[in-house]
Amino acid sequence: MSSGKSSAPKLTSPLVLRDHTLLTEDDLHLFNEGTHQRLYEKLGAHLVDHDGQRGAQFGVWAPNAERVCVMGDFNQWNRDGNALRHRGESGIWEGFVPDLKPGTVYKYSVLSRENGYQVDKADPFAFHSETPPKSASVVANLDYLWGDQDWMGERQKHNHLESPMSVYEVHLGSWMRVPKEGGRPLTYREMAPKLTEYVRKMGFTHVELMPVMEHPFYGSWGYQITGFFSPTSRYGSPQDFMYLIDTLHQHGIGVILDWVPSHFPDDEHGLSYFDGTYLYEHADVRQRIHPDWKSCIFNFGRNEVRSFLLSSAIFWLDRYHADGLRVDAVASMLYLDYSRKEGEWIPNPHGGRENLDAVDFLRTFNEAVYKSFPDTQTIAEESTAWPMVSRPTYLGGLGFGLKWDMGWMHDTLAYMAHDPIHRKYQHNDLTFRMLYAFTENFTLPLSHDEVVHGKGSLLGKMPGDDWQKFANLRLLYGNMYGQPGKKLLFMGCEFGQGREWNHEESLDWDLLRHPPHAGVQKWVEALNHTYSNEPALYESDLHAEGFEWIDGGDAEQSVISFLRKGRTNQDTILIVLNFTPVPRTRYRVGVPQGGRWREILNSDAKEYGGSGWGNFGGVEATPAPAHGRRYSLSLSLPPLSALFFKKETPES
Hints:
Blueprint: E1 15-17, H1 25-33, E2 44-50, E3 53-61, E4 65-72, E5 82-83, E6 85-86, E7 92-98, E8 105-112, E9 118-121, E10 128-129, E11 137-138, H2 149-159, E12 166-170, E13 177-178, E14 184-185, H3 188-202, E15 206-209, E16 213-214, E17 227-231, H4 238-250, E18 254-259, E19 263-264, H5 285-288, E20 296-297, H6 303-318, E21 324-327, H7 330-334, H8 356-372, E22 377-380, E23 402-404, H9 406-417, H10 427-431, E24 442-446, H11 458-461, H12 466-482, E25 486-490, H13 515-533, E26 547-554, E27 559-565, E28 572-578, E29 584-591, E30 595-602, E31 618-621, E32 631-637, E33 641-647
Parallel strand pairs: 1-2, 12-15, 12-25, 15-18, 18-21, 21-22, 22-23, 23-24, 24-25
Antiparallel strand pairs: 2-3, 3-7, 4-5, 4-8, 6-7, 8-9, 8-11, 10-11, 13-14, 16-17, 19-20, 26-27, 27-28, 28-33, 29-32, 30-31, 30-33
Helix pairs in contact: 1-6, 3-4, 6-8, 12-13
């Protein structure tokens, strides 16, 4: 990651128009060239002063339109009301409408010259939208007096790849609701203090918000976006959303936004068939429709579409101070045959299955983000073995800062689902990751995808009786926090929610009245704080020198042990994991140094819901060779447990 700082935007002031346009010839050139990164400053609806008159300047791309008009309450929704003028071959239509104010509702009436097709469209660049099921755009400004200057000035150290990153994934509509008001979701402003206080207490360093961009279907969780520049109005205004991010920042918490450049829904008011032609999407159905989601796929080879998407990405980092973008469904962008059968896809010019336009776009996107905002991160949800996803573009990589380790997630959950008596036969699922762990900059994700669509909760995936289920869950989290890589945990999993996630309901916060759930929550809190306070657990998260096996081959007893190492000899953590319910005494583990090794975490402690087995706070290393080392520890391994030890120094 590059180092540097990006300053917070100041309050915007009205623009003075002299020629009824915000677009310069350079803007038009960059837009048509596919390199414009700040179209949100030019297109859409902007409140401006023109010749002493206050109003809104509109701009929209519709190159195949015969006529484009703005309509709304201000002209009785007259489709032929306020006509826009076109800017030559650029395909852009623009115009000024006087006397419009924030809150004005509008759409574009687009008449196609191709086939007489006429349709009413929401503004692709709208800053605000009506609350679904309504679908019009809303004139809005983005004025906001930010209070997060301290965070923005030093966030490079928080978002750096050598800093701790423990991410709490949140769906805004179902994290917490208001039972006395029909179970409605919290607003952005209501959520700000509650989420901030909770995340700080739990020790997460970042929050990742599932897509907040406007989406017509709530059940899509935000992944079917129509408003690529508009935070959903379900929870408030643009300024309300800024307040949420501002509050988190002022309390030292980073904010990552899910961003979906892979596809968009075919709702009539959205981007699809925008001007009577397939403008944002491909014309050929073999490239146009995503077979899994029945949505439209962006035409990444079209220059103006690239400018649109690049501008959307930069917009959230610029105007909303986002600290990173997690890019959804990258694999679906990279492969032309993704989820398609033979004959249902078109090869690239070289006969291959790689989507060369998408590859080029993703590289351009990452270069643009890190050039303008070097203190942020881009994160790829990429589920295949595409090489060098998180390596620089100048080396041939895609240029992402991080990549989700979907292989670790699948292997680990499959392993944990086995009855412990059979785990020794699946030991490779537990250890295989270390063969590739440093080929990418990985985040270890236990995300919303693992607790929906009949998959049950993480707690429900664990085998055994109730006690063993909770012990296994604590062990799963201990393994994740011990492993090299950044961490991500979906909301509700931190206290062991018993049922799978339902986006229509609040999390089951009342479960915290029960000691096993409260114990899991305390365990995750302890893991987070230990992770952030121990350099050995994060400094070399992404480098091989930060990890060393003690013994990864004890399949018979289903025990693994390894070291996590920081930059100094004092920063060394020993982690021992027992994946069976069998308590083991006098279990010998080789260590690099003599002296006392303090037990800093034990998932079987009573405060976490365990049985209370342990090592009385620490163990003295003796000169008894083991695992190729001169010194070793004789440990008591509690059942289904994760143990963390740190070598004591004279100062400690």
